[in-house]
Amino acid sequence: MILTVTPNPSLDRTYEVPALDRGAVLRATTDRIDPGGKGVNVSRALAAGGHRTLAVLPLGGPAGAALAGLLGAEGIEVAGVPVAGQTRSNISVAEPDGTLTKVNAAGPELTAEEAEALLRKVGERWAGADWIACCGSLPRGLAPEWYAELVARAHRAGTRIALDTSGPSLTAALRERPDVIKPNAEELAQAVGRPLATLGDAVKAAEELRDCGARAVLASLGADGQLLVDEDGTHFGGAPVAAVRSNVGAGDASLAGFLAAGGTGVAALAAAVAHGAAAVQLPGSLMPAPKDLDPSAVRVTDAVPLDRELTEPAP
């Protein structure tokens, strides 16, 4: 069982439009509303693959109730912590070429009591969990050290932690040695304080994060594939994608695939790549089911082409 923690969940509405013309009245060709937040998406991808998962998250107001209902409809068990603020709603506008414009709300500000209640809820439910996946930004009211405290408590209980966050909350958590972290290229660059132009740059950045405390780094590099840097070395994986429809939640699907495949080693990296490649070809933040995966298309190697330039260099 994989338990996910999403401190700042959302309702995500996605509109597909022929073109995004600023100042114009746009008519969507399709629209959908999905549960949102990085940990929520990990649970959704796990559930889509038939894996048991439990989502721990704060819930507030009608939007929070709607979010819990949508998750329940997908077969996901929810352990909600009531909060006074309103669960946020986000909007994404997707164009035919895969360009995505997102408007993310700030979300509620949690009180100190609500922040501690969220930690306690995780502690009450982590028995029997193979992994805890802590994902996403921290809402207002939670100190950058909140994830670090959660990692420390989980490790004392003997539970492995996967962490997908960035900025000060990632920096603070590294000292507690999370078992795996999952940055994208931009987050890697931010963490080491310099731009990344090549795969070699990304490998070096991941190695530095391991030096800072991460036991393994699973780095999503968009169209360039994924890197796994751990105690066994460095491996690089990729898969062809016919057309990108939406990249919302693709990194979350990758993490779900990685953890469902054990969370360590080359086989887990291959599963992460297959899930990420499938996710970008689906609308909105729809998570891939087994029928959407093409494991035979995945290629993983330890001969990393270090000089290869990134398609989208990270500033």
UniProtKB/TrEMBL annotation:
| Enzyme class label | transferase
Signal sequence: where?
none
InterPro entries this protein is in?
A: 1-PFruKinase (IPR022463), PfkB_dom (IPR011611), Ribokinase-like (IPR029056), Tagatose/fructose_Pkinase (IPR017583)
Q: Where is the Carbohydrate kinase PfkB domain?
A: 22-290
Domain of life (superkingdom): Bacteria
Record-level Gene Ontology MF annotations: 1-phosphofructokinase activity
- SUPFAM superfamilies associated with the record: Ribokinase-like (SSF53613)
The alphabetized UniProt keywords are: ATP-binding, Kinase, Nucleotide-binding, Transferase
- Provide the E.C. number(s) assigned to this enzyme: 2.7.1.56
Asked if NAD is a keyword of the record, the answer is no
Under the heading Pfam families, the entry gives: PfkB
Bilayer-spanning residue ranges: none
Similarity-based family: Belongs to the carbohydrate kinase PfkB family.
Question: What is this protein identified as?
Answer: 1-phosphofructokinase
Q: Which organism is it from?
A: Streptomyces sirii
